[in-house]
Every structure is written in C-alpha cells, then in structure tokens.
Amino acid sequence: MSSEAYQLHIYSAGAVAPPLQKAIDVFEKKSGIRCNLMVGKPSNLLATIAVSKKGDAISCGAEYILDEAEDRGLVVKGSRRSLGLRRSAIIVPVGNPAKIKSLNDLCKENVHVGIATDGCLKGLWDDVASKAGLTDQIRRNITHHADACGSLMGLIHQEKVDAIFGWSAFQSVWPDTCEVIELPSELQVFRSTAIAMVSYTRDAKLSQKFIDFLASDEVRKIYSGYGWIHKG
After folding, report:
1. DSSP bridge partners of 24
2. Same domain flag for 156 and 127
3. How far apart are CA 23 and CA 200, in angstroms?
4. What mean pLDDT is predicted for residues 33-49?
5. What is the pLDDT of residue 129?
6. CA distance 185 to 32
7. Which of 1, 6, 92, 179 is the most exposed place for a label (fewest CB within 10 A)?
8. pLDDT tier at 14 (50, 70, 90 boundaries)?
9. Does the structure show a pLDDT above 50 at 3?
10. What's the pLDDT band for 52 if we cut at 50, 70, 90?
11. pLDDT for 4
C-alpha cells in the first residue's frame, strides 16, 4: 500500500494526548504522512477498535490497559514501546483552598478526595495509601469516583473535591486549574505511557515507522516537556 495515500489512524487516552499530538505534528511535517488522532477513554477506544476493526496505533497511560488489549487480540504482541513514565502525586485546585500539604492531610475530617476507578489511574490511591499505612483513614474521605483522568480532573474543576490522586504531569496538561503536591519518594508510584500497533493496521511498515519515531530521542524531549520522566 502506498504510504503517500494512507492516513494513519491513531487512538489515544485523553490525558496522554497533548504530547502525542505535538509529536504527531512533527511526524507529519517530516514524513508528509497524515495522522488522524481519536482521543477518548481507554475502555471506549478498545471497544471502538474491536467493533470497527480499524486503526494503526494506540497509546494509553498504563501498561495493564495494553496488556488487556493484547489479550483481546487488539494490538500486535511485541509491538509495544514505552514513551515515558508519570509519577503519582496529590492534585489540588489552584490556590489549594483546603491547604493540603501531605498525604496525612487527606485523612483529616471534612476533606473530600476523588479517585479513579478505571483508566490509567485505577487503583493508584490504594497503591499509595497502602505504602503509607493510611488505607482506612483515606478511604473514609473518598467521596467521589471517576472513570478516567479527564473526568477525575472534572471533579477539581467543578469544586467537588479538595484533592485527587493523579499524576504530577497533570500540571503541564492543566496548568491553569491545578497544583501538584508531591509525595515523598518512598510513596511514589510510576506507570508507563506506551504505544502499540493495532492488529487491524493495513500498513504495518508505516505503523512501525510511526512507533519508532515516537520512541526517538526527539520525541522523548517532547514528553519530558509535558512532565513525563525517562529513566535509563
């Protein structure tokens, strides 16, 4: 198939889309190949791929999401590449009205906490709270659940919670609406943002070219600019 006529169809989870879109812009200018980016919740994206049997690559903010995609036959085994890591943090509204300074503050009376029950942040609060031995205390203050990063940040924007468990990179994605309260290193959790080839691609060579570009040092700098971390 001629790569000149073929447009790559890329899927992306919402909170990992900003650096991916910037990388796509560079790829399009360098290669002359057009990319169509579809952004949404990971579960919805996988459902779309399963039904449409179309697409070339998908990026999500946690490896276990792509593990599921691989088990369902939606992505090509062995095609996955990590694009960087995000570090867990407490996210609060701009101005930090509840004066949250540490994980212990999430245990105080009348503090409202939001967590994600799906997507890349699923189970993150449990990982962090368990490390600190504060599971019961924090659970008592969890008042709202969200099913993805965007809807979790929506709780901040709608002033429904005082804090959420999120990624430090959120401040680069939503710089005008949130602040980051860093966790001590012993409580931090890291998860990988990855890209994988969709099993239904009609141009595997071109899809691989795109994935290789995303794994390049040039694109690594783009992700670093949005708060992603690279080790090694």
Report:
1. none
2. yes
3. 23
4. 97
5. 98
6. 43
7. 1
8. very high
9. no
10. very high
11. 52
Say if residue 94 is in the same domain as residue 179: yes
Mean pLDDT, all residues of the chain: 96
The two structure tokens encoding residue 204: 């595997």
Residue the block writes with tokens 């795109």: 210
pTM value? 0.95
Domain encompassing residue 213: 8-84+192-225
**Is 147 in a helix, a strand, or coil?**
coil
Q: For residues 168 and 94, state if they share a domain.
A: yes
Rounded distance between C-alpha atoms, residue 133 and residue 128, angstroms: 9
Count: domains in the chain: 2
- Please list, in sequence order, all residues whose beta carbon lies within 8 angstroms of the beta carbon of residue 109, skipping any fewer than 6 positions away: none
Given a contact cutoff of 8 angstroms between Cβ atoms, the answer to whether 153 and 116 are in contact is no
Q: Is residue 3 part of a domain?
A: no
171 phi/psi in degrees, rounded to 5: -65, -25
Which one-letter amino acid corresponds to residue 118?
D
Position 183, amino acid: L
Shared domain check, 177 and 220: no
Sign of the torsion angle spanned by Cα atoms 214, 218, 220, 226: negative
Looking at residue 1, its pLDDT comes to 47
